[in-house]
Design brief:
Layout (H helix, E strand, L loop, with lengths): L1 H33 L2 H45 L13 H57 L4 H33 L7 E4 H10 L2 H6 L3 E5 L5 E4 L1 H17 L6 E8 L3 E8 L31 H11 L3 E6 L5 E8 L1
Helix pairs in contact: 1-2, 3-4, 4-8, 5-7, 7-8
Length: about 350
């Protein structure tokens, strides 16, 4: 910076020297041509006045440039150090204001990128923590079963019992990995949902096919009220996944001999799909947290699941411009309403 201002000062001095040299030459030539000494005096006075004005103008311009440079550099330093909170108010259409406007836009972009990176890093840390927590139990069980099989002599029936337990833990790990792959691919934008105008009835039918056997085992009655001709723009595969997660939860948390109702209504701007069960219900204070990844209530840890279904369901519905609502009361069942725009 000092070298830069030194070069400016040197340029000013050289320009001043050249101006004075030409002024002296002009005075000499004027005196030689006219021989009028008073004209020379007046010329000297005029040249000195012009020189003084020019010097004042140069110093004023230099002062403005120094102030502009110092302010600009200070703001840049504050941006780099993350200390700036309020930018100067732009009131005039000056060079400084134009540059400040672009600097503000650049700062906003950098700040947004920084926030996004921090959020992604936090999400990644939470994801790693969640995965490590979820795989800890099945891996520990697998190690225990494997150690038992290696260290103890047992009959074929007992071995089969241990191997069946081992297979259940492997299935749980596989289900967890598949769910995590789906979730991470959706969040990363690797998978793009392809919405098409198609019947919601067939999408629901595919989802219902995955839970009917389990519902029959628990003697749960499933009632469906949906027009076969009702069309809505949605991705059939992923929306079916979302419906399956809701239906699967309904079957899991509904006691034997219960009932599950699926009701589809056409609204003006949305198609509303309501899945209601006669299960244990969800407390009001917990209804805001059930959509969190890996969230499970303490009292249902004996029921199979990893707590990612509702989270994945909300992501799928939200990515299609829809939303999901829950209405529940302890002991009276739960109702999930999915709203999909036409």
């Amino acid at each position: 910076m000092k070298q830069s201002w030194g070069s400016v000062n040197q340029s000013c001095m050289i320009a001043s020297g050249i101006f004075l040299l030409f002024s002296i030459i002009f005075l000499i030539i004027s005196y030689l041509i006219t021989g009028n000494i008073s004209l020379v005096y007046w010329s000297i006075l005029y040249i000195l006045s012009v020189f003084f004005i020019v010097i004042k103008l140069v110093f004023w311009l230099r002062y403005q440039l120094v102030e502009f440079s110092n302010t600009f550099c200070r703001i840049l330093d504050e941006i780099l150090n993350g200390e700036i909170e309020i930018f100067p108010v732009l009131e005039k259409d000056s060079l400084f204001d134009k540059m400040m406007y672009r600097l503000i836009r650049l700062y906003e972009v950098v700040l947004e990128n920084r926030r996004r990176i921090i959020k992604e890093r936090k999400d990644l840390q939470e994801l790693i923590s969640d995965i490590s927590h979820q795989v800890k139990t099945p891996i520990a069980n697998l190690k225990m079963v494997n150690a038992t099989l290696l260290e103890q002599e047992m009959g074929r029936e007992k071995q089969k019992e241990f191997l069946t337990a081992c297979d259940m833990q492997i299935e749980k790990l596989d289900f967890l990995m598949q769910a995590m792959i789906k979730t991470s691919r959706l969040e990363a934008g690797i998978i793009s949902l392809k919405k098409q105008k198609q019947t919601i009835y067939e999408t629901l039918a595919n989802a219902l096919g995955g839970i009917l056997l389990q519902a029959e085992r628990k003697e749960i009655q499933v009632q469906v009220n949906c027009s076969e001709d009702l069309e809505v723009s949605h991705d059939r595969k992923w929306t079916g996944e979302a419906f399956f997660n809701l239906l699967d939860n309904a079957v899991k948390y509904t006691s034997n001999g219960g009932i599950i109702k699926v009701d589809v209504k056409a609204w003006e701007m949305y198609v509303k799909v309501t899945i209601t069960d006669s299960g244990k219900g969800i407390a009001k204070e917990k209804q805001g947290t059930i959509f969190q990844r890996f969230y499970r209530e303490e009292e249902v840890h004996d029921i199979e699941g990893i707590g990612i279904g509702l989270y994945l369901t909300r992501e799928i519905i939200t990515m299609q411009g829809g939303y999901i609502m829950v209405d529940s009361e302890i002991g009276k069942g739960t109702s999930f309403s999915v709203f999909l725009p036409y």
